[in-house]
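Support request from a user on the community tier.

User writes: "When I paste my structure tokens into the form, the page sometimes reloads and wipes my input. The last time it worked, I copied everything first. Here is what I submitted, just in case something in the input itself triggers the reload:"
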């Protein structure tokens, strides 16, 4: 009887050990599958991501100065931007660095209408226009902790040039004012920015960014391919 009981104990111990080993093996396989799936496709920005952003910016960065008051007509278009971004081949720390290019444009105009009593009480105007073009390189860090399957938060910098053209014209008959001016200047451009992106479809997202560039705030659509 003692031998039978001892045999049963040994057999039970062996079966339990085998079951435990199988469970641990299955757990390891599951962990590996999860890790593999998490490293490919479970982040909205990873080693295979390519993104085009089309945005509209608001809050002018103050590239011009003009008086605004009675008789003035002032207007500015949204700051349109187009950016491209793709990751570096390997992770840098706990995330990816995305690199690409930035192009931005904004048009501003100001016009002043008035009457000159010294020249027959005729209607005259002064008109100013500015066009700003920004061309820059762009880089952003996408930290895995803030990078999920459908949403992310990122931050980065741009560096490049801003090209500003300026035009002045008037129909005033006074020789002191009756001239036209066309000018163009190139300035260095650089900015830090922070942004967030959320995918409402598989490859289409909305994004928003804050930073000193062609405008202070930009929002729009991201297209992933």
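"...and here is what came back when it finally went through:"
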């Amino acid at each position: 009887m003692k031998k039978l009981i001892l045999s049963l104990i040994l057999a039970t111990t062996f079966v339990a050990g085998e079951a435990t080993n199988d469970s641990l093996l299955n757990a390891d396989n599951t962990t590996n599958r999860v890790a593999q799936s998490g490293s490919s496709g479970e982040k909205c920005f990873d080693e295979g991501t390519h993104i085009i952003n089309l945005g509209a910016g608001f809050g002018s960065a103050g590239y011009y100065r003009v008086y605004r008051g009675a008789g003035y007509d002032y207007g500015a278009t949204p700051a349109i931007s187009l950016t491209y971004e793709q990751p570096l081949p390997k992770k840098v720390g706990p995330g990816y660095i995305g690199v690409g290019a930035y192009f931005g444009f904004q048009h501003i105009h100001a016009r002043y209408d008035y009457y000159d009593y010294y020249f027959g009480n005729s209607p005259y105007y002064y008109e100013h226009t500015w066009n700003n073009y920004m061309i820059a390189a762009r880089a952003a860090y996408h930290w895995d902790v803030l990078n999920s399957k459908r949403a992310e938060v990122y931050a980065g910098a741009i560096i490049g040039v801003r090209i500003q053209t300026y035009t002045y014209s008037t129909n005033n008959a006074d020789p002191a004012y009756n001239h036209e001016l066309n000018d163009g200047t190139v300035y260095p451009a650089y900015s830090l920015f922070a942004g967030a992106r959320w995918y409402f479809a598989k490859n289409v997202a909305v994004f928003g960014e804050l930073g000193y560039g062609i405008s202070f705030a930009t929002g729009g659509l991201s297209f992933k391919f």
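Agent notes: The reload is a front-end session timeout and is unrelated to the input. The two ends are 72 Å apart (CA to CA). The longest helix spans residues 2-39. Escalated to web team.
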